Amino acid sequence: MNNRNIWQDYYAKALARPHAPRTAVAARLNHSGILTAIDCGCGTGSDIAYLAELGYQVHGFDINADAVSICRERFAKQQSIQISQASFDEFEYPDCGLLIANASLFFAKPVSFSRLWQSITQSLASGGVFAGDFMGVNDSWAEGYRSPITALTRQQVLALFEHYEVIEMHERDEPGSTLLGRSKHWHTYSVVAIKS
Hints:
Residues 38-128 form the Methyltransferase domain. The protein is an alpha/beta fold.
């Protein structure tokens, strides 16, 4: 099965999923006064749909053309939603009160991750919320994956949040499977944090 078919199968399954519970938590914690959200690696748009219902202006982006096509069709009639095809490096981050990066920051280029994180932090208003995942070094994708992966230690993840109040940080380090049912070892850090 080629890479394109894998992503198509993934998105077909992802369309059936509701928004992430962590996205609801993050939206409740946003005290920035800014109802603008960014969904990094938006996939099929489950979090976008939820945030738009809450009254957010949502900017979603994904590098995968299939994901972008699905979202553009799904949200064609909603003026409060903007969908872009872009990488982390290409996207222009607007000022926001909420930034979601569920299972996407793994795929940011390691060589430009520091610059990306600076862009994310600068885009978030004081009192705004980051909610997302980072890949740990024990993950089976951390080395030898088909594209470069940014894998971080616990200390490296915590260092990113020097100017934030970390509300929750959950570490997963266990065998599991992907959405498509393939076995792998997961090592991730899931973080919700409020920018100071």
